[in-house]
Amino acid sequence: MSTFIIAIDFGTSFSGYAYSLSPTKDPEDPTCILLDQHGEVMAFGYKARNKYYEIHKDTAEYYYFKDFKMNLYGKPNMSTLIHALKVFSAALNFLKEDALKTIRQNTLQRVNYVASDFTWVLTVPAIWDDSARQFMREAAVQAGLVSSFTEDTLVIALEPEAASVWCKQLEPKDFIKDSGDRVKLPVGAQYVVLDCGGNTHLGRSLTE
C-alpha cells in the first residue's frame, strides 16, 4: 500500500476528506449531489443544493439526491441498488477529483498525483452488513478510486473505530473540556467516544 493516504468521510448529512501530505483538512460539504439528464455530475455539496434551488421549477431534466447514504441500511431491492450505485459512485468520483485537485494545488512540487498513488480509506457505519460494505467497494471501483486489480489499496473503516483510533493516538493533555480548557487524563482513565452522525449514534469505550 502507498504511504500517501486520502480518507473520505462519506457521511449521511455531510461529507469531506483529509489527506496525509499536509495537515490540511477540506471543510465538509452536505452529502447531496445534482446530476443532469445524462447522469453526469453538475455539482456536489453546497453548490448542488444552491443550484437545485435555482432550477427547482424545471427539475425534469435534473436529478437531485441528498441524505441517501442510509438507504443501504436494511435490505434495499435490486432496482434501488442499481440506481444507488450510480449516485454513490458519482459522489465518490467528485470527492476523489476534488481531493486530488486540492493536493496538486497545495504541494510545492506541483506533482500530478493520480488516484493510484494513494491508499484510500472510506468510512462506513458500524451497523452496515457485509453486503452494504461490498456495495461501497463496488462504488469506489466505479468512481476510479481503485481498480478491480488494486482493491488492496482500499480500506473500509468503521466510523466509530476510526474515531477511536484518533483518540487513542492523542496525548493525555490533548483532550479538551466543553469550556475549551485542556484536561490531562491520567494513565488508565476510561472514556467513551460517541460518533453522532446524521442518522446514526454509535459509541465505543476506551482506556487511556
Automatic annotation (TrEMBL):
<dbReference type="InterPro" id="IPR043129">
    <property type="entry name" value="ATPase_NBD"/>
</dbReference>
<protein>
    <submittedName>
        <fullName>Uncharacterized protein</fullName>
    </submittedName>
</protein>
